[in-house]
Design a protein that fits this description.
The protein has 26 helices and 33 strands. By secondary structure, the protein is an alpha+beta fold. The strands form nine sheets. Strands 7-8-12-11-10-13 form a six-stranded antiparallel β-barrel. α6 packs parallel to α19. It is globular.
Length: 928
């Protein structure tokens, strides 16, 4: 007699999701985690089953000659998980697939069913949020796995494999090893390269104008020169961004002399109001977040990379705090609108409610990933304080909460104020803004890609002005302006551009941007994405030989084809056959490229108008120039952007290499020459040269930042080379004490015990007695340091009028207001910092929350290694084996975000064991 199996096995992707769902289901349900995909195309020859080894197509993982049949394997890292899931399934009467509701989740579920081969009923449940109500509703309304979605995802996977595994080896042979090409990745790189080319072609132009500070009574306000003699004064928009020439006719272009002459004349003139105008305006709230807009706003406001944003959002979703975070939809459920409106009335009052519930329409073409926008989960719209979230999780949740709540608030009502002011034939324009009713501004104001943009919710009033009013002149400045090149992309603006072009899907942008950074195609400098010379070489090769692969329209059309396959309105096999095996298909194009592409040409970057060229070598990019029949080369220092490399730099590098190192003089102690050289990481000094055949390197020291190599003296070079200095032996231990300079500044050290030098100490002259004194003091802690004097007061904070102070800290300059400190980003000097910039930095730091203490549950940096420290799965056997950090979707290992401002460059997520083997499983929609 068969034993009745009462248990139901629910399989999800991650332990966190399993733990949350388990709390909402009765005891008859067992919830386990698959840890992402359980199988995939083989990643290496070792994963190819023995019976397929030796077959050419097996390396590709797709049998293109047999209906593009994919070879799926279960990798070694997933075999134990599969075995445990099979063991749990033996005691279950039903298998419930509860993977995420998008194409990727559908594909994970399909692979699970194929691998587990269940002999019991299988059902598929989906839910947009992990709440008790949503889970129970999903259990009540199960469905079957959607094979159209699976087929679309499989086609996408095959396309990516065909592009990556055929074009990438070509790049290795023709340019450099370790490079990669990708269906969407290469298009994203090309967008960055095109912008950098525009910046290189850009020619700056200079123009002048006047800025007046005027008085109405005792109230000052500013006005800017608009016309002279009835003609408009030229501004930045009137210049061609490539040539720098004036492109607008019938405008007045002021030079320095003309501007100063006009300044002197107008100082003696009468100033009167010629005209005033007030224009009422209404600002409506923004739609709630989609995947794309969340990535953009988290980058602008929290300085989070797209990758980190998605990882944090994944955790918030799996813990039941937000709805599903991969969505193109801006739709809100009735439940969400009701919860938002209730909160608005409670927190702000009924007058801040929109008259009727707002429903937004999704404009994104092909939106299909989910049916609702990203919002706080549940029916209560709980605040970050109520949920006791902190750190980056709290900051991201609060961003989502504010955006959702604001979408149901009343319009903001503003009045824009302008005044035309005349003085001796010149007209100045004064502008202001008055917030008549803040409406949704009370909850949320969207960020801007323009760092100089004014905040929308800030009053910028003008004093009461009427036609004919006489004004006093306080100051009149003649200002010089230089036109600026097109701004480099940030992660936010790149995501926005990719979505606008229809390239890829927002759910893939995080991995795309992470990949191009990891591959060395892009450097992240402050918040900018700067393409490297390698990116230039690869993009050039693809443009010349595979133009369709980097054409935005072609790539967007591929996404439309995949959408049609997902809808069941297009066939997948004819599309793949045409793409890969057609007369002009990828396979034939690559074969032609193997023969036709010259490696020397492919690895060369031609910079128009430059005296030389840049080539990609084994050890990085280098400059190559010809002179008198000879070819001279020199390595390019790290960090030089293609648009910023000047003719003078190229010539100087080659000249320095040809002439050999500059000898600053002789070291009196050793008799060796002291030389200055230019290396990959910048200028450095070196003592002597390594003896021929010796592996010992000569002593070297990098020049401090900001020091001009031309100003370097022999004495200072010897000082640099003197470090670390041995000061003598410690009187108590008889062990050496040394002085040197490290990452955090000058220090003394004794047996691994470090002390920072005080400001009055000089690392080059500090003696043994002082070092012993410093080492005898306890390490700095609370109350141990003397009060630090600010470098200057930046200005008054607009909220409370309290001063914003600028300090020099251990990690560089920072601003302080109240209890909030914020570091200055790279590229912003203390002297350049404005009050608006300081306010923005402080707001971002405050949004990220205070640094978490060790052991704090949220926001605390915690290093986890792949394969270790996982959360428990539903079943005990699975729990013991799931020694992997919590992952989302494809990640089997991830590093915790350390902070909302710096995690971007430091965290990498390896793709989870990409897996799977063809084990005779049926393909969706086929009999194979």
């Amino acid at each position: 007699m068969a034993v009745k199996k009462d248990k139901r096995l629910v399989v999800v992707e991650s332990p966190t999701k399993a733990k949350t769902i388990r709390n909402f289901l009765p005891s008859g349900y067992v919830v386990a985690a698959s840890m992402g995909h359980v199988r995939d195309l083989p990643e290496s020859a070792a994963e190819i089953p023995a019976k397929f080894k030796g077959q050419e197509w097996a390396r590709l993982g797709v049998n293109v000659d047999d209906g593009f049949d994919p070879l799926y394997v279960v990798p070694a890292g997933k075999r134990k998980i599969v075995a445990e899931l099979k063991a749990l399934l033996k005691d279950a009467g039903e298998l419930i697939v509860a993977t995420d509701e998008d194409r990727e989740g559908e594909s994970i579920g399909w692979h699970l069913v194929q691998v587990l081969d269940p002999k019991v009923p299988v059902s598929r449940i989906v839910f947009h949020e992990i709440t008790p109500e949503a889970i129970r509703e999903a259990i009540r309304k199960p469905r079957q796995i959607d094979e159209h979605l699976v087929r679309a995802q499989e086609t996408r996977r095959i396309l990516d494999r065909l592009v990556g595994y055929t074009v990438s080896p070509l790049l290795w042979k023709k340019i450099s090893s370790g490079l990669s090409a990708g269906r969407v990745q290469s298009v994203a790189v090309r967008l960055l390269v095109q912008r950098e080319r525009e910046r290189r072609a850009f020619r700056s132009a200079t123009y002048w104008d006047l800025k007046a500070t005027l008085l109405r009574g005792i109230t000052p306000f500013t006005a800017v020169l608009a016309t002279v003699g009835g003609k408009r004064v030229a501004s930045g928009r009137d210049f061609d961004e490539n040539t720098g020439r004036l492109k607008t006719a019938d405008v007045v272009l002021l030079g320095g002399d003309e501007a100063r002459a006009l300044q002197e004349r107008l100082r003696q003139s009468d100033w009167r109001v010629a005209e005033t105008d007030e224009k009422p305006s209404i600002r409506r709230p923004y739609p709630p977040f989609t995947t794309s807009t969340l990535q953009q706003e988290a980058n602008r406001k929290l300085r989070l990379s797209a990758r980190d944003t998605m990882r944090i959002a994944q955790r918030l979703y799996e813990e039941g705090y937000i709805t599903y975070m991969r969505t193109d939809s801006v739709h809100l459920s009735d439940q969400a609108m009701k919860a938002s409106r209730s909160r608005i009335a409670q927190l702000y009052g009924d007058n801040y409610l929109s008259p009727h519930p707002r429903q937004f329409t999704t404009k994104s073409k092909g939106a299909q990933e989910a049916h609702e926008a990203i919002r706080p989960a549940g029916t209560e719209m709980k605040t970050v304080e109520e949920l006791r979230l902190s750190g980056v999780e709290g900051a991201l949740y609060e961003l989502i909460w504010k955006r959702t709540v604001a979408s149901q608030m009343a319009d903001a009502r503003l009045t824009y104020l302008t005044a035309q002011i005349e003085a001796d034939g010149a007209t100045f324009r004064a502008s202001g803004k008055r917030i008549d009713f803040p409406g949704f501004f009370r909850a949320y104001v969207e960020g801007s890609d323009d760092p100089d943009a004014a905040l929308e919710d800030r009053d910028e009033p003008l004093p009461p002005l009427a036609r004919g009013d006489a004004l006093g002149l306080r100051t009149l400045e003649a200002l010089s302006h230089a036109t600026q090149p097109p701004a480099r992309y940030t992660e936010a603006s790149l995501v926005k551009q990719l979505e606008a072009e229809g390239i890829g899907r927002p759910s893939t942008y995080a991995s795309i941007i992470g990949t191009i950074i990891d591959r060395g195609y892009v450097d992240r400098v402050t918040n900018q994405l700067v393409p490297t010379f390698t990116a230039f070489a690869v993009t050039g090769l693809l443009e010349r030989n595979f133009p369709s692969l980097v054409d935005t329209r072609f790539t967007a059309r591929m996404e439309e084809e995949l959408d049609e396959i997902a809808e069941g309105s297009a066939e997948w096999l004819p599309y793949l056959q045409h793409f890969f095996l057609g007369e002009e298909g990828l396979n034939e194009t690559v074969k032609r490229g193997q023969e036709a592409i010259d490696p020397r040409e492919a690895s060369t970057v031609i910079l128009e108008g430059a005296p030389g060229r840049v080539r990609i070598g084994r050890f990085g990019p280098f400059v190559e120039m010809g002179a008198e029949g000879d070819t001279m080369t020199a390595s390019l220092p790290d960090g030089i952007a293609p648009a910023d490399l000047t003719d003078e730099q190229m010539e100087q590098l080659v000249r320095a290499k040809a002439e050999g190192p500059d000898v600053l003089g002789m070291d009196p102690a050793s008799g060796k020459p002291v030389m200055m050289l230019q290396g990959r990481f910048g200028p450095y000094v070196q003592l002597g040269e390594a003896p021929e055949g010796s592996k010992d390197k000569p002593k070297r020291a990098s020049l401090p930042k900001g020091l001009n190599p031309a100003d370097l003296s022999l004495d200072f070079a010897l000082k640099l080379l003197s470090l670390p200095r041995t000061l003598g032996l410690h009187p108590d231990t008889g062990k050496e004490i040394q002085a040197s300079v490290g990452r955090f500044g000058p220090f003394v050290v004794h047996e691994g015990d470090f002390r920072s030098l005080a400001k009055q100490d000089d690392v080059y002259t500090v003696d043994l007695a002082r070092a012993v004194e410093l080492l005898s003091q306890p390490k700095g802690g609370r109350g141990q340091r003397a009060a630090v004097e600010p470098l200057k007061t930046v200005g008054a904070h607009p909220k409370d009028g309290e001063p914003i102070l600028l300090f020099e800290g251990r990690y560089g300059p920072y601003v302080k207001h109240g209890g909030v400190n914020a570091s200055l980003p790279k590229g912003v000097g203390p002297d350049e910092l404005t009050v608006d910039q300081a306010v923005t930095l402080l707001a971002e730091r405050a949004a990220a929350g205070p640094p978490a203490k060790k052991g704090a549950r949220r926001g605390a940096p915690a290093r986890k290694t792949a394969g270790k420290a996982a959360t428990k799965t539903a079943a005990k056997p699975a729990a013991k084996s799931a020694k992997a950090a919590e992952t989302g979707r494809k990640t089997a290992a991830s590093k915790t975000v350390k902070s909302a401002r710096s995690a971007a460059a430091k965290s990498t997520a390896r793709t989870a064991a990409k897996t799977a083997g063809r084990t005779g499983a049926k393909k969706p929609g086929t009999g194979k």
